[in-house]
Amino acid sequence: MRGRSVVDDAREVRRAAELINLGARLQVLESETCLSRERLLRLYKELRGKSPPKGMLPFSTDWFVTWMPNIHASLYMAVHRNLEKLSALEPVEAMVKAYRLYLEQCATNGLDPVLSLTRAWRLVRFTDAGMLRLAPCTRCHGSFVVRDHDLTRHFVCGLCRPPARAGRTRAAALAAN
Amino acid sequence: MQTDQLLEEIREANLSYLVLAQHLIRRDKAEALFRLGISEEVADILERLSTAQILKIAGSNMLMCRFRFDDQLVWNLLTSHSRERGVAGAHAAILMAAALPEAA
Q: CA nearest A61: which of A161, A169, A145?
């Protein structure tokens, strides 16, 4: 820690602050910056005015294949992949930029952003680890997030063939009234 | 007279497109590539254009921008008026974001 340059340190702090403002949890910060846990905690409290949520991050890949989350996850991955292919970005940078663009897409389409930054980070990690992957829909040819062991030869996405009662949640019913 | 007016309109469309593109590229290149749907090579050329050059290019009788998708499905999704409009928009966005520009 002693030999680190001040400029690098400032950059790390700025990056951590950006992630915190986007709603990242402490585990994301610990993995994506090289600041100490104490400093991250202090930074978090300063920016948010409260302690970060405790406990483990959601660790299941199943959430990403349920209907609405899958749409959001696939949208995020489409943006992320596009950015990654077109320009040489650092992994964190690509993740944050893709997340901002994803939020924009949600706003223009009038959708609540279901995917939090922490979830998006998990999604990228799961995909890198091969636990999730993208499969082409046989009807619309878009790429959608599926689990690694899912069979995808005749895969049709949740948008081309929505499941019965898809999107009819209690929240949607309340919003309609 | 009619043709003159058309050419003038094309010039204006070209001009605003080129100026916007340059502005986006200079602000954040990675984001601009995504928004414009162009390759990095084209972005580099656009970035270096001077105002005089932009004016010259804009004065062509052809439009400099074109549609980023020719898929019937995307058109339908974008123009649909179904109840699930937000979801249709997300579907279109997934399909559009997946399409990468051809290398220049």
A: A145
